Amino acid sequence: MATDKPMTATAAGRYAAALFELAGEQNSIAGVEDDLGRFQAMIDDSEDLSRLVKSPLYSVDEQSRSVGAIAAKAELSPLVRNFLDVLIRNRRLFAVEDMIKVFRSLAAHSRGEVVAEVASATALSDAQMEELKATLKASVGNDVKLATRVDPSLLGGLIVKIGSRMIDSSLRTKLSNMRLALKGTG
Length: 186
Description:
The protein has 2 domains: about 1-105, N-terminal domain of the delta subunit of the F1F0-ATP synthase (Peroxidase, domain 1, Orthogonal Bundle); about 115-185, Glutaredoxin. A 4-stranded mixed β-sheet has the order 2-1-3-4, sandwiched between helices. The chain has helices spanning about 5-10, 10-25, 30-45, 45-55, 60-75, 80-90, 95-110, 125-140, 170-185, and strands spanning about 115-120, 145-150, 160, 165-170. Strand 1, helix 8 (about 125-140) and strand 2 (about 145-150) form a beta-alpha-beta unit. It is an alpha+beta fold. About 60% of the residues lie in helices and about 15% in strands.
């Protein structure tokens, strides 16, 4: 998979690739992807968990107890629990979000999909998401899975990232460009 090499060239990529391989051997790629998505959502929703994951100030024991309790309560699979434990023991938990991103990309690639990261000023409706998927599919030629997030600072419009390509149609960027253009004419 030549397209996966840049993705797996980093430490986060190697960990994600190892997890992907293990999940494939256990025929549980979809389940692991769901578990990782739930863990990412917990990180996004909790400043305390985010701090625990990213800060080197917490000891291995503190991270292990806390993440272990959270993983058990969330009923994450044993494979994901073991993966998180390995990250903690190897002091790599800070990179788990990058690993989740790479794992999702590997899973999507194995299904023949392309992952598009979409930032919008407000949550997209189901109809808007379907229209965006159809438009992106026509552009890239593969099925597209959307990873959406809301960023109110965009004011309006979208920022879409597919691999190394980015399409920025946000109002914030348009206003910024207009401001630069007006400064140049004065």
